[in-house]
């Protein structure tokens, strides 16, 4: 497309600097060009093989401990499921006669505690895997925090189940002498 008043074979003059070199652009906006990066002196540079070996060994140990914690958490969740669904062994540990106490409200709370434990373990395993895939230096803290939070939530749910049942609350209060 030709501009009226200009010869057809010539290139139009740039209006906004699109043909300017980086030096010309820097001169126009009055900013100096960034200095070229200087390489590290050879004597101060660490050996890349040694650095990679140290990082790999540390990450390998960290991953192994994180997997061991996740395996222990899965074993704990598997052992806690029967206790969350039927708290009679827990009552016997507390010194209460579980045969004379009728559990009225423990079922729903126990299922909620079981869901909290399983969901907490799944979320912790997923977050650990995701952090490892993204290259975080340490993933060890994720199973520790995840296990603490999941056990705290399920413990509060079990406590709510035991304290909301009037038969268990009366048995605990009569045992304590109040």
Automatic annotation (TrEMBL):
Spans through the membrane: 60-81, 101-127, 139-163
Renumbered residue ranges of the record's region Disordered: 1-48
Domain of life: Bacteria
Assigned keywords, A-Z: Membrane, Transmembrane, Transmembrane helix
SUPFAM superfamilies xref list: MFS general substrate transporter (SSF103473)
Protein name, entry field: Uncharacterized protein
